[in-house]
Each structure stands twice: as structure tokens, then as C-alpha cells.
Amino acid sequence: MQSYKAPLMDIKFLFDDVFNYYEHYKKHPEFKEATPDLVDAIFQECAKFCENELLPLNQSGDKEGCKFENGKVITPKGFKEAYNLYVAGGWQSLSHPIEHGGQGMPASLGMAKAEMMGTANWSWAMYPGLSHGAMNTVQTHGTHEQKELYLTRLTEGTWTGTMCLTEPQCGTDLGQVKTKAEPNNDGTYNITGTKIFISAGEHDLTENIIHIVLARLPNAPKGTRGISLFIVPKIKVDNQGNLGDANNVTCGSIEDKMGIKASSTAVLNFDNAQGVLIGLENKGLECMFTFMNTARVGTALQGVCASELAYQNSLAYAKERLSMRSLTGKKYPDKVADPIIVHPDVRKMLMTQKAFSEGGRAMIYYTAKIVDDIEMAKTDQERKAADDRLGFITPILKAFLTEVGTESANHGLQVFGGHGYIKEWGMEQIVRDVRISTLYEGTTGIQALDLLGRKILLTHGRTLKDFTKKVLVFCKDQSMLSKNPHKRQMNKFIWPLSKGIANWQQYSIRLALKAKRNRDVVGSAAVDYLMYSGYLVMAYFWAKMAQSAYEKLAGEVENRDFYRAKIKTAEFYFDRLLPRTKSLAATMMADPKTLMQLDEDLLSFL
User: Fold this and answer.
1) With contact defined as beta carbons under 8 Å apart, do 370 and 389 qualify?
2) pLDDT tens for each residue of 457-499
């Protein structure tokens, strides 16, 4: 049976020490209520809800799954009751504007909440989680009337939201969208088409579901330039928010999936369903990116959640499972064998999980500060600068953290050995659940093309320069004795980090030159380039965490072992995981000819 304890000490370390969140909150007068005492109380209560209400439903929800009966979805036993407690506790409204019934807390605080809930029960967390992207889209692009009508109910949680993008003939290539939007005389539109893979597209948790739908107007330009965005409720709503008749949005089926079985993934049919335009005509794709960036950071979080849950369970098992003796002599002579945690190979898997979990959490929390800055920006210039920072880091987070989260989940199963393959322990569920994270919201390959093609090559490396400059300033400060009394201790992190950043810049330039001669270079190098980038970004945050730990240990502090463990994990990361960049450098710089030279017919030669 799975166990989970919210990592409050680690979250507090990031908030208080590494990222100095409370100074960050002081920059935004809107966040004056987010004091350390209040934030700590919120974390404590969230941890209780996750540990006591959500975790017990994780395995049972996976076993029962969602039921589809007569066009309706029935969620697993206990899900609706947990959702009602979630709404009653005000968790949905935590990080949304006061004017729409929210509590006005920072988005970054909501991200920490989402991590705890997602780790305890990712399938359940997807139902309220999908609403946040819909809410952000309406908040950013909706009219005053649309905000008044939809945001209050979405904020309180009596309605949920989805995004409806994918169709049977197209996934990532949204230029192929065929769903039609025919204008009516009253300013509404009739939406007709089929959408697939719609997470939380149909369920029994709320009275209404608000769908954000991509569709084409008559005579719209072909391709992505001709896509508009619409708000289409499952149940029609009048101007006062009262529910009316069903809106010709029906669920044709739900998918029988490998994992996240307790989260309904729906096929939705829109048959002249009534909707309203959000944003400008034919600008739907631009509006959608508000939704997509939110969704992609949320998906990156799934990698961290899976890594954390797998780590906590495999660590407990490794301490108890007895097998063989340590190669350096008996460690527990009073037992028939030593616990497997004494074996170096098991330690390597556990340390890898720990490094990815805590390093990934730091990457997410760094990004959450950027999201705060975007939402609170006072000028277009401030907003664009923050949005550029988010745009650069998002594909790295989404792809890298889900890939290493999948690795961590597999390590967890491996630590359990044969027992990990048995459903009773819940380890194989974590592997199945996290596997989707590398696929939805843009596969690893798509994120890699976005990073290398759009964020690096098309901007001539501008956003990369901005990020690497920040890292190099940190390295310089850490290497100056006048600024850093821990210089000698930090050198083991600073020198390889500085060298790695310099190499990252040089490889980016070389790939840009290669791509001018052969466009296939971009496609062949992209995934390895993204993973290379991810290991370096995580190295930066492990160096920052080590620096903060050294500072805490220099004073009078409780839980000294916690900070020593941070430093030791950072050492492991730099010694065992960061060197993976060497092989990634070799493969990303390799000529793509060996990928492309085999004739297509010979690929299927038998």
C-alpha cells in the first residue's frame, strides 16, 4: 500500500531560503496577506487534506477506474466526497482574484498546493487542475461579461473547465483542426465537431463543465492562422449564471488507458453546441498559449510528483527489505541479512530519485515566481520580459522533468524487485500514471523542437543568454571570497557548473551553424539538446540549494542533518548525474545522416 508524507521541510527550505519568497511577495502589494505564518498554516492544512483524504483514494481509484454509462461518467468511490471537501475548504479559490471570489493568494502558492495534491493522487487532482488553465484564459482574454459570468463559478469550484484542442485527425498539428463555428444573429456561435483526449471532459463532480474549444469560422484562413477560440458550456447558462438546457455537448466514450485510470479522458461531440468567441477571430492559437503554458508547467509538476511518491515508498521499503550482506561486512549482524539500502546499486537508485525529486521541485518553484511576475506585471514591458523567461524554461521543465520523473518511477519499481511488479504495493501504478506525462501537452520531441527551434535558433539565443547570464553571475559571486565565506566548499559545484554553462552556449552556436547547412540537424539534435539543457538547469538549482544549506549550517539551526543531506545530494548530482551531459553532447552534435540515410522501404525490410 502506498504511503505519502508531504515534504513540508523541503518546501519551506525553498520558500524561505533558496528563493526568498517573502521578499518576492513584498514586491507585489497584492500579496501582502501571504505572510510566513499564513503560508505555513496553508501548507500544514493542505498536507493533512492530501495525506488523509486524497492518498487513500489513489490505489482504489486506479483499481475501480471511471465508469461510462449512457453518456455519463461516474468517478471512483470517494472522489466526489473528496472534491466537495476540497471546495468547502476553499482550495480551488486559493490563488485566484478576489473580485471573482478568490482569496487573492499568489499563483506560486497554488503551485505548492498542486504539488502536494498531485503527489497524493494525480488522477483526482486533474479534475480541479484542468480548471486553472481555463480560468487563466478567460481572465486574460475574456470580456468583462465573460469574466463575470464564468470566473466566479470556476473559482468557487462548482463548475470545472477543460481545453478541447485535439481531434481524431490531428494532435500537435493544430492547423488540421476541422471543428466548425457558425455565427448566429445573437452573437453566439454553433460549434460542431469532435474532440478527443479531453482530460476531465465529462464527470460527476460538478454541475457544469466549461469547455475552451478551438474551432474555425466560415471562410477562415487555412492552417493555424484560421483558428478561433470559444467558450462552450456543457449546460447552457443565462446572463445571471443560472443553468438552463443541455448544450448538445455529449460524451461519446472515455478512453481505456494505461494509467491515470481514475481521471476520465473523454471523446466529446459538439453538435451545434452554443458557444461564444473568446479573444479575436482567427487568433485562437495565440489565446490558447495562455492555457498551454499553464498546462505544460502543470505537466512538468507530474514528473516531480511521481518521483517524490516513488522515492518515499522505495526508501521505506529499502530500509526494511532484508537481502544478502553488505560487501564491506555485516551491517546488521542481529538480522538474517542486511537491509537492501546498504547495497551501492540500491543507494544509487534512491539517490537518483532524491536528486530528481528535490531538484525538480526547485525548478518548478523558480518558475512559479515568474508566473507571479507575469500575473502582477504593471506594464506590457514587464509582462513580456517575464513571459520570455517563462517561454524559455517551460519546454525544459515539461520534457526534462517528465522524462526524469519516469526514470525515478522505474527506479522505485526496481528497488521493490518482484514486489514492485505486483499491484498491492502501488509502484507499478506510479510507472503507469507518469508515463502519459511525456506525451500529453506536447511530447518530449515537440518540446525539444520548441526549445531548440523557436526559443534558441529563432531568437538567436537571446533567452538562453539571459538565463545563462544569471547562472554565471551566481557562479562569479560564489567564487569571490569577499562575497561568499563558503567559497572553498562551493568550488566543487561552481567550476563544473561554469564549464557546463560555457559549453551550453558554444554547442548552441555550433548547432545554429550546422542547421543553416542542414535543417535535419534541428530534429536530430533537439531531444538530446533539451535533456542536456535540463541537466545543466537542475545543476544550477542544486548549486543554489547547496549554497543555502552551507549558510544555514554556519549559524544556529535545528535539523542540521537536513542541510547536510542537501549538500550530500548536491554532491551526488554533480558526481553521478551531471556527467550524463557528456554523452548527450556527443549525440546531439552527431551528423544526422545515420538517421536519414536508410531508405524508408528498408526500415520495414523483413
Assistant:
1) yes
2) 999 999 999 999 999 999 998 887 666 788 889 999 999 999 9
Cell (9 digits) for 360: 525538480
Distances in Å between the Cα of 221 and the Cα atoms of 181, 213, 228, 231 are: 14, 18, 11, 21
Do strands 265-278 and 228-233 pair parallel, antiparallel, or not at all (unpaired)?
antiparallel
C-alpha cell belonging to residue 44: 500544514
List, in sequence order, the alpha helices (H) in 29-160. Answer: 36-49, 56-64, 79-88, 107-120, 122-141, 144-146, 152-156
Q: Would you put residue 422 in left (φ > 0), alpha (ψ -120 to 50) or beta? A: beta
CATH number of 287-444: 1.20.140.10
Q: Rounded mean pLDDT of the chain?
A: 95
Instruction: Check pLDDT > 80 for residue 106.
Output: yes
Could you give the CA distance from residue 539 to residue 597 in angstroms, rounded to a whole number?
36
Question: In the structure grid, which three cell numbers stand for residue 484, read together?
Answer: 561568499
Categorise residue 551: left if φ over 0, alpha if ψ from -120 to 50, beta otherwise.
alpha
Question: What amino acid is encoded at 296 in this protein?
Answer: R
Q: Which amino acids are annotated catalytic?
A: 441
Position 95, amino acid: S
pLDDT digits (tens, 9 = 90+) for 57-83: 999 999 999 999 999 999 999 999 999
Single-letter code of the amino acid located at 350: L
Parse the chain into domains and list their residue ranges. Answer: 287-444, 447-594
What amino acid is encoded at 88 in this protein?
A
The span from the CA of 413 to the CA of 431, in Å, is: 8
The H or E element containing residue 201 is none
Nearest to 239 by CA among 201, 280, 291, 186: 186
**Eight-state DSSP code of residue 184:** P
- What is the reported pTM? 0.97
Looking at residue 518, its amino acid is N
Is 7 in a helix, a strand, or coil? coil
Provide the CB-side half-sphere exposure for 362 (13 A, CA). 28
Reported as a pLDDT band with limits 50, 70 and 90, residue 291 is low
State the pLDDT confidence band at 133, using cuts at 50, 70 and 90. confident
Q: How confident is the model at residue 597 (pLDDT cuts 50, 70, 90)?
A: confident
How many helices (H) and strands (E) the chain has is answered by 21, 11
Which three cell numbers mark 425? 504495493
CA 463 from chain centre, in angstroms, equals 21
Cell triple for residue 285?
Answer: 492559437
From the CB of residue 479, how many other CB atoms can be counted at a distance below 10 Å?
15
Give CA–CA dist 236/233, Å, rounded. Answer: 6
Q: Which residues contact 311 (CB under 8 A, 6 or more apart)?
A: 350, 353, 354, 357, 408, 412
- 410 contact partners, CB below 8 Å, separation of at least 6: 431
